[in-house]
Amino acid sequence: MGRGELEELVVSLGEPKYRASQIFKALHQRRRRSFDEITDLPKSFREILAQRAEVSRLTVESRYVSTDGTRRYLMKTADGKPVETVYIPTEGRDTICFSSQSGCPLKCDFCLTAKLGLLKNLSVGEIVEQIIIVLNDVYGAGAETPHGTNLVGMGAGEPFLNFENLIDALRLMADESGLFIVPDRVTVSTAGIVPKIHDLANLHDRPHLAISLSAANDELRNKLMPINKRWDLDELMKVAREFEKSLRRGERFTFEYVMLGGVNDSAKDADQLADLLEMYRIRRVKVNLIPHNGAEQLDYAASTPEQVRQFKDILESRGVSAYVRTPRGRDIYAACGQLAAKAGA
Ligand code: SF4
């Protein structure tokens, strides 16, 4: 619930409006997980609330900790659908990778989540609660949200097919009296839902954008990411160029490029990508190269480190900023494209 809805609830229960602020702070800032823990409310009111409302809709089914500190959480919604969330510690900051859908309707050929199909769109609460559960696990309930917490909407699902809930959840999490994770600390990744990229460009409080590209020609992208048959590279590049105009000072957006051995990682592929950016005059972008993490159920292998380096060098020689993302949590199946893999180590 947003603040307005909470106010309506407390007033409908005969309590003054300020109780809504107390509840909001307790649930979001102090990350309490039951009404009983909100001890600044009268006990009788807590009991009424517990009869009328629920704080939690997710339960943690299992939790895996990687040798590199990454944590992977398999959660379940109250209606029994799986949700995956990953915590990635790096020096001086934490990143939480959250899911926006249970399963995913898109059929990216290199992704295990695709095998599940769409199970459901997650509600605003189910999105926010993933972050609360992870922060409580890492820091304990009640501790302030660490200042350097970043969010990435790159877990299971296509966030822009659940756009309204996603944006409402991000607004709730940005609230100063709540988690206070501002949009500047959030990046959302799309497989290329063109109309929603357009909508995002027009939001004043939007997060950063990443577009999963993974191929620089339609033939290959149709195969790897069938969403390309709905919105092809021409439409995607045009909306990316439009999005570029909405960038704030010093901001860039990202193209994610999953590197698949022998499929999209040749020198020709790198040149084609640089040509594409040149043709559409897209400049304020960086390319994240993500070596594929492999999984028994998928037919793809990771690119060799030499291929990755050559690809990066070619992009850079053509004036494109390129970075190689270090895979995290591979041993617990927490890395990109691995969510929905078997239970893990
Ligand atoms: S890569 Fe992302 S958009 Fe594509 S099928 Fe997997 S979860 Fe869905």
Instruction: Assign an overall shape.
Output: elongated
Give me the secondary-structure category: alpha/beta
CATH superfamily of the largest domain: Aldolase class I
How many distinct helices?
A: 10
Biggest sheet strand order reads 1-2-3-4-7-8-9-10-11-12
What report would you give on this structure?
There is one protein chain. The chain is of the alpha/beta class and 345 residues long. It has 2 domains: 50 residues, Orthogonal Bundle (DNA polymerase, domain 1), CATH 1.10.150.530; 275 residues, Aldolase class I (TIM Barrel). The strands form 2 sheets. It has a 10-stranded mixed beta sheet with strand order 1-2-3-4-7-8-9-10-11-12, covered by helices on one side. Strands 5-6 form a two-stranded antiparallel sheet. A hairpin with a 5-residue loop joins strand 1 and strand 2. Helix 4 packs across helix 5 and helix 6 packs parallel to helix 8. The structure holds iron/sulfur cluster.
Characteristics:
alpha/beta; 10-stranded mixed β-sheet; 12 strands; TIM Barrel; 2 domains; DNA polymerase, domain 1; two-stranded antiparallel sheet; 10 helices; 345 residues; binds iron/sulfur cluster
What's the arrangement of secondary structure elements?
Layout: H1 3-12, H2 18-29, H3 43-52, E1 58-65, E2 71-77, E3 82-90, E4 93-97, E5 101-103, E6 118-121, H4 124-139, E7 149-153, H5 163-174, E8 186-190, H6 194-201, E9 208-212, H7 218-224, H8 233-245, E10 253-259, H9 267-279, E11 285-291, H10 305-317, E12 321-324
Parallel strand pairs: 4-7, 7-8, 8-9, 9-10, 10-11, 11-12
Antiparallel strand pairs: 1-2, 2-3, 3-4, 5-6
Helix pairs in contact: 1-2, 4-5, 6-8, 9-10
This protein binds iron/sulfur cluster.
